[in-house]
Design brief:
Number of strands: 25
Number of helices: 24
Structural class: alpha/beta
């Protein structure tokens, strides 16, 4: 029977308090520079004030939980100028500090009271001696994964209740103590009870490969507490397929079993397998062992870090871990646990920096990067943008092999944490699976022009102009341009424009069979009305030579088109016997004529088989509109008399009869009276 162990312990009371932020000091906001979620300075000021107030009413060391190293540094700056007044020592604790500084915090209380500003590293993995008080910002920086690219991200979120309760418990380990939460009780009630499980946020590539080797492709048949997200599974499956580790059914290939046998993430394992024939087992294993670490190279210069470790410098713990992993991988390769058959290249002559760059590029071909022309920003083969940290010695390098990159939520570009300069030929060799050729076309100077482009993923390598545009490519570009920029890219002489306007009114009034000639409809059926012109345009012909009038005529329905002039006339006869042009451009027919030309006209003219009244613009003798109507009878009965009263004195040579319905229509003025003697 198992032995029963009894471990005595004491439970101390915990005093929970609320330090609600004032209005305007909410925890999270959006950075105007990056668009990402950031912790607001006003909130960090509230945290600093809470610490100061707490020091005056409590005893013992104070442990402050903040989401990340950046916030630790900001709060430390806010408190530093008060440190002597408060008689406290202010210390920082986070994973990127040197081991000596972390040991200083963990060694125990000093002669003065301490305020320890910590990230989540002190939540459960480390115990800080002497702590009697906790101040919790109630925020958490949690990992996420850009599943499409396999790039890790850190997002700042409201910490779950479970995490905050774990933190608060630190105040009552040695005795009774208070824990202050920098949030409100109402906000606390809205928080999630637990943080997201790792399976919901992690990169599943290695887990999916191991399951495929066990005989569970796609993690099928596994009883899991939480199902993995479908998007993460799909992205992991695509990465494994690109490595050649799984077949179309998601089952492990012989290479996949080989990669799964190595204690490495699949991309690193594939890099080791590919690099060993070129660099030798021990050399390749050393570089891969380094890449397996969570690297934060100063200035992102990974080659400099590797040289320092090789000379016995740098972090001794990192150096020992890399050495031990190198030995382990070398033994596995030599024991035959991993077959590394393949063509041997002359890679042994490569310098250590070039060899490291090649291994990095083999491990992460999607992270091969090229500098954008005229900038210090980079474009990765997988399409992501990236920047180096300020002052990096790698600034200006044309090509980089990136080993570590991180992207904050809401940021367009990732931040490069470790990279090596890369020769272009090595970039093309390592990223050979991503090299492809495509035809790109665009509408320029009134015609479709095409180029053949060779690319490494999203990075263009070479480009050459094509004399002949492939018709299917050109047709797509032309259609997209016309839908995006409109049909005014084509020539529209007056006759074509008029015909289209008349057809539009008939379609609106009568419907079928009169076709829809709107922008959207014509752009969607280019092949129907442009006919042979479309093929010529798609192959690079000039848009200026398109006959849009003939194209529209091809859409006219027959035999209905024989009545076009009846249904939508270009000109209408007015009571004087003259003909006036009809303006169809507004979507309804408009006829302009002088008031005197309409005398005797009682019934407003109608078109489209009598369904659409013509809108009459009635003008004064100077051609200025005095009335707009589609009901002449109503105009003569009322508004005309106001018009007559206003204008008869101004235009006495023109007739203004009291009874316009029985007056003679005219387009002429009265003749001038003859002066005596003439």
């Amino acid at each position: 029977a198992p032995a029963l162990l009894e471990v005595p312990g004491r439970i101390h009371p915990l005093d929970l308090r609320w330090a609600t932020p004032p209005r305007g000091a909410e925890p999270l906001g959006v950075s105007p520079a990056t668009g990402g979620v950031v912790v607001r300075r006003e909130f960090l000021g509230h945290v600093a004030r809470t610490i100061t107030r707490t020091l005056s009413t409590t005893s013992g060391d104070v442990l402050v939980f903040l989401p990340g190293a950046r916030e630790v540094d900001q709060v430390r700056r806010l408190l530093t100028h008060q440190a002597d007044t408060l008689d406290v020592e202010i210390l920082s604790l986070h994973g990127s500090l040197p081991a000596a500084e972390q040991d200083r915090v963990l060694s125990g209380p000093g002669p003065r009271r301490r305020v320890v500003l910590s990230t989540a590293v002190a939540e459960s993995s480390l115990t800080v001696p002497g702590v009697r008080v906790v101040v919790d910002a109630c925020l958490s920086r949690e990992p996420r994964t850009d599943v499409a690219r396999g790039i890790p991200m850190l997002v700042t979120v409201q910490a779950s209740r479970a995490r905050c309760e774990q933190r608060a418990g630190r105040a009552a380990r040695l005795g009774p103590g208070p824990a202050l939460r920098c949030t409100s009780e109402a906000d606390w009630a809205r928080r999630p009870a637990q943080s997201l499980p790792e399976i919901a946020t992690a990169d599943l590539t290695d887990a999916l490969l191991q399951c495929a080797v066990w005989g569970n492709p796609g993690m099928s048949g596994l009883s899991l507490l939480d199902r993995p997200p479908a998007g993460s599974l799909a992205a992991a499956g695509q990465r494994l397929a690109s490595l050649g580790a799984v077949d179309e059914g998601g089952r492990a290939t012989s290479l996949g079993r080989q990669l799964a046998a190595l204690p490495l993430d699949p991309p690193l394992a594939r890099a080791l397998v590919d690099a060993t024939p070129q660099l030798g087992a021990r050399r390749a294993a050393g570089f891969v062992a380094l890449l397996g670490e969570d690297l934060r190279a100063p200035g992102a210069d990974l080659a400099s870090l590797a040289r320092s470790l090789g000379r016995g410098g740098g972090d001794p713990m990192l150096r020992h871990r890399v050495h031990d992993q190198q030995q382990r991988l070398s033994r596995l390769l030599q024991s035959g646990a991993s077959s590394t058959k393949g063509p041997r290249a002359s890679g042994h002559h490569l310098s250590d920096e070039d060899a490291l760059a090649l291994v990095v590029a083999l491990a992460h071909p999607g992270w091969i990067a090229r500098r954008r022309p005229g900038t210090d920003r980079y474009l990765l083969a997988d399409g992501l943008g990236a920047t180096l940290p300020p002052g990096s010695p790698l600034t200006g390098q044309e090509w980089l092999a990136i080993a570590q990159i991180q992207r904050g939520a809401g940021r367009a570009d990732g931040i490069i944490h470790a990279a090596v300069p890369l020769a272009r030929e090595d970039a093309e060799r390592a990223g050979a699976a991503l090299v492809h050729e495509e035809t790109r076309a665009q509408l320029r100077a009134g015609r479709v022009q095409a180029h053949s482009v060779t690319s490494l993923g999203a990075i263009d390598l070479t480009e050459r102009a094509l004399q002949q545009v492939p018709e299917e490519v050109g047709a797509q570009v032309l259609g997209d341009a016309l839908r995006r920029e409109g049909l005014d890219l084509l020539p529209w002489p007056a006759a074509a424009r008029s015909l289209r306007e008349r057809m539009a009114v008939l379609h609106e009034a009568l419907g079928e069979p009169w076709p829809d000639v709107s922008e959207e409809a014509l752009a969607a059926q280019l092949d129907r009305w442009l006919g042979a012109d479309l093929g010529r345009l798609a192959r690079g012909g000039a848009l200026s030579r398109v006959d849009t009038l003939s194209g529209l005529r091809a859409l006219l329905p027959w035999p209905e088109a024989a009545h076009l002039e009846e249904l939508a006339p270009e000109r209408l006869e007015v009571p004087t016997g003259q003909h006036r042009s009809v303006d169809w451009s507004s979507g309804r027919p408009i006829l302009s004529l002088r008031v005197q030309e309409a005398f005797g006209w009682v019934d407003t003219p109608r078109v489209a088989d009598g369904r659409v009244p013509v809108l009459l613009h009635l003008l004064d003798p100077a051609g200025r509109p005095v009335a707009v109507t589609s009901d002449l009878a109503s105009f003569w009965a009322g508004p005309y008399h106001d018009v007559r009263a206003q204008l008869r004195g101004r235009y006495p040579r023109h007739p203004w009869p009291e009874d316009p319905l029985h007056a003679e229509p005219t387009s002429r003025a009265k003749p001038r009276p003859r002066r005596p003697g003439h």
